[in-house]
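This part of the workshop introduces the protein records we will be handling. Each record describes a single protein and holds just a pair of labelled lines. Instead of coordinates, the fold is spelled out as a row of discrete tokens. To make this concrete, we reproduce a full record directly below:
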Amino acid sequence: GDLLRIQAPIAGIDSIAENGGNASSIFRFTATGRLLDVSSATSLQFGGSAYAGDVQRVLCVNSGGRARIAGNGAASCGADS
């Protein structure tokens, strides 16, 4: 596929963690807005320990690649993300 856009890092967020683990900086999406490789990320947490839990955000990605905001840093993704 063709590359549509490369976006610079968001300065106000110190990390994006996949599955609450390793920090990541590359997320590939399809032209329809779905996450391309859902096997590597079922949840994404925006903001690390430098931020209070109420300003962190957890995004859940379902098996079809669609993402939804689950809530603040204390939220988790259920089996039906």
